[in-house]
Every structure is written in structure tokens, then in C-alpha cells.
Fold:
Amino acid sequence: MHSGDAVPRVSAATPMPAVIYEMSRKGLGMTTVTDGQILVGIMSDGDLRRLLEAKGPDALGMTAGEAMNGTPKTIGPDEFAARALSMMEEKKITSLVVVEGGGVVTGVLHLHDLWGLELI
Structure:
């Protein structure tokens, strides 16, 4: 799990160029959108591509809050890795945000983190 400063994080007011920068800088293909420590959404590479297809250059004038997926898939910190992998395969996603009670972000689990664990 990626935690602490390794978690990509922006606020809802963050302009799209800064969102893209954070996604690239942290290398997970996504960023969390938070209000303090509380998860309010997510922006993935796929979300960004779909946004650019729909809005074209106007997408760059948006904020994270305007463009984010407000219902991201999450997992609790005590869940098994096999459960996380199953969720990722079922939903066809590469990242799950790890949240504790009340939606506090504790980390991000990426599909690449699970590949070497021999879960099957």
C-alpha cells in the first residue's frame, strides 16, 4: 500500500493542470480528491481521458471537484489482499483507496502491488 506522502492528493478546488501534475508525479495513474483527510472523490487516468474526449481543451479549465468521480471504490485497511484483487478485477480498475471510518484516506492500493503476492 502506498501511504503518507506517496498518496496522490488534491483538493476539490485544485485546477486541472495541477491535478494532472499530481497524478503524474506520484505515478499511480490516479489521485484522491480530499477535504482535509476525508475522501470526496478520485480522478484516474481513465477519468481524465474520458473528460478530455467530452470537453476537449475546456477540460483544463475545470477543477478536481468538477471533474472527479464522486463515488470511488474503496477498501478498509483490515481487508485481505485477495479481496482487494477480486474487487479490482470485478470493477476493472487498477487502484483502490484505503479508507478508515468516516472516509479518512490511509493509503492507495495499486494492482501492481498485488501481482507479486501469489494470491491464487
About this structure: DSSP finds five helices and six strands in the chain. The chain has a mean pLDDT of 93. Residues 4-115 form a domain with the CBS-domain fold (CATH 3.10.580.10). The two ends are 19 Å apart (CA to CA).
